[in-house]
Design a protein that fits this description.
There is one protein chain. This protein is of the alpha/beta class. The chain has one domain. 28% of the residues lie in helices and 21% in strands. It contains 4 helices and 5 strands. The protein starts with a strand and ends in an 11-residue tail after the last strand. The model has no long low-confidence stretch (mean pLDDT 95).
């Protein structure tokens, strides 16, 4: 399974993502990755966001995300999952986000 991060992507980001299963982002990378999220949907690339350390703000970006790791309790994670529509919301873990990819 090919996994790419924003740091892996050079000038032609869409071409660099070709063949990837996952794009991993951090909370701080989300804002400058909006155009990438459109391409991930078109190219069937799943998106995972490590949002620990920052409370996630609601936004259109959530529609493109399949997995998010957040701070908080499992109850808060379930509430966020229902509100955001993100398939898998993981809370209260120190594990690397790659642990939860499918």
């Amino acid at each position: 399974m090919r996994i790419v991060t924003l740091a892996d992507l050079k000038e032609d980001k869409r071409a660099d993502m070709h063949g990837a299963r996952w794009l991993l982002l951090t909370a701080s990378e989300l804002e400058r990755s909006a155009s990438l999220l459109m391409f991930t949907e078109l190219d069937d690339i799943l998106v995972a966001v490590d949002h620990r350390g920052v409370v996630p703000a609601d936004g259109l970006w959530q529609r493109a995300v399949h997995l998010i790791v957040i701070d908080g309790t499992q109850t808060e994670a379930e509430t966020f999952r229902r509100r955001s529509g993100i398939t898998k919301v993981i809370a209260n873990t120190n594990e690397d986000i790659r642990t939860f990819l499918w």
